[in-house]
Amino acid sequence: MATVALTEQNFKETIDNNSMVLVDFWASWCGPCNSFAPTYEAISEEYQDITFAKVNTEEQKELAGHFQIRSIPTLMIFREQILIFSQPGALPQDALKELIQKASDLDMDMVRAEIEKQQAGQAAPA
């Protein structure tokens, strides 16, 4: 599967309409981003059931700002509309595959329960 270019206009729709989305925040002038791009593209071909997307931080400054991107490349993983991973830095192919497997194996019911628990704790009076 080819990667999808994300913009402010299609970001929410892409996250909402796909069960798992990997997002690579990058810029054309970034050496590590350009080194990571072929790995990201190759892996996207192996996982047809996952959406692989890219955000050009130079063209999509609002998105980069919203997600507080301070270093590129930054990789994020959304699963069932929940951000479950965010980390700057390029990953080697084996590490990226391992990360995808861990994200796929994650028990999302437990994740949602933990989020609810944290939100309830924040809402509790001090």
Model description:
It is a single chain. With 126 residues, this protein is of the alpha/beta class. The protein has a single domain (4-123), classed as Glutaredoxin, CATH 3.40.30. It is 45% helix and 22% strand. Strand 4 (74-79) and strand 5 (82-88) form a beta hairpin.
What's the pLDDT, averaged over the residues?
Answer: 94
Provide the structure class.
alpha/beta
CATH architecture: 3-Layer(aba) Sandwich
Give the total of beta strands. 5
Extract low-pLDDT stretches.
none
Radius of gyration: 15 Å
* Share in helix: 40-55%
Main pleated sheet: 5 strands, mixed
* Total domain modules: 1
Q: Indicate the CATH topology.
A: Glutaredoxin
Terminal Cα span? 49 Å
Strand order of the largest sheet: 1-3-2-4-5
Can you write the helix and strand succession as a string?
EHEHEHEEHH
Counted by DSSP, the helix tally is 5
> What is the CATH C-level name?
Alpha Beta
Keywords:
about 45% helix; alpha/beta; about 130 residues; single chain; Glutaredoxin; five-stranded mixed beta sheet; 5 strands
What topology emerges from the helices and strands here?
Blueprint: E1 4-5, H1 11-16, E2 20-26, H2 31-46, E3 51-56, H3 61-66, E4 74-79, E5 82-88, H4 93-105, H5 108-123
Parallel strand pairs: 1-3, 2-3
Antiparallel strand pairs: 2-4, 4-5
Summarize the structure.
The chain has 126 residues and is of the alpha/beta class. It is built from five helices and five strands; from the N terminus they run βαβαβαββαα. A five-stranded mixed β-sheet has the order 1-3-2-4-5.
